[in-house]
Structure formats: structure tokens, C-alpha cells
Amino acid sequence: MELVCVRNTKRLYDLISTNERWLMRRVVDYAKKHGYIKYTSPREKDWEASIRGLSESILKALEHHLDLGLNIAIMAAYHNSVIKLYKMRINASSIKPLC
Question: Which structural domain range is residue 34 located in?
């Protein structure tokens, strides 16, 4: 389950980092359509700076989540392998668990 979350986070990270221009056009179109544009700067450079700043913040948060998610997945895989080894040793030995 954790690896699925990491894959989805990576996909979102890639989408944001490679589609900034498309994202900016979508936000500007939305602002125009709903009348928000009258409260903001009409200059495209200002919109670029705004979207870039927002994208950078989201990407930093996603990087943190990716690092955390990968670490959790690695730790879970390690613990699962230790448990499997223990079970194999119990089954292979003549020692039978008490319960």
C-alpha cells in the first residue's frame, strides 16, 4: 500500500514540475471565467511568478512526502523479511513453538 502512495505522489510531482505553463493557463482562464481577474495583476509575468511560487511549495512538500514514503516502504520491507526469516527458521528447526 505504501508503494502505491509513493507512486501516486511521484506522478503528481512529475505532473506539476513538467506542466507549469499549462497550469498557469488553466488558473488564468479560471480567474477570468469567474471574475477574479479584476482583483489581480493583468501582467502575465506576475501570474508566472505566482504559479511558480505555488508550484515550488507544493513540490517541496511532495519531495518530503516521497522521502518519508520511501523510507517507510524500505523499513516495512526489511521488517517483513526479518519476520519471514524467523518463520523459516522455526519451521526448519526441530524446535516447535509453544503455542
Answer: 2-92
Q: Show the cell assigned to 35.
A: 471574475
Contacts of 51 (CB under 8 A, 6+ apart): 20, 23, 24, 27
pLDDT in tens, 5-52: 667 778 888 888 998 888 888 888 888 898 888 888 878 888 888 888
Q: Which amino acid is at 9?
A: T
Our count of domains for the chain comes to 1
Q: Are 63 and 13 in contact (CB under 8 A)?
A: yes
Q: In this model, does residue 75 exceed pLDDT 80?
A: no
| 37 inside domain | yes
**8 Å CB contact between 55 and 23:** yes
Positive or negative torsion for Cα 54, 59, 60, 64: positive
* Residue 58 within any structural domain of the chain: yes
Q: Which amino acid is at 46?
A: D
Establish if 97 belongs to a structural domain.
no
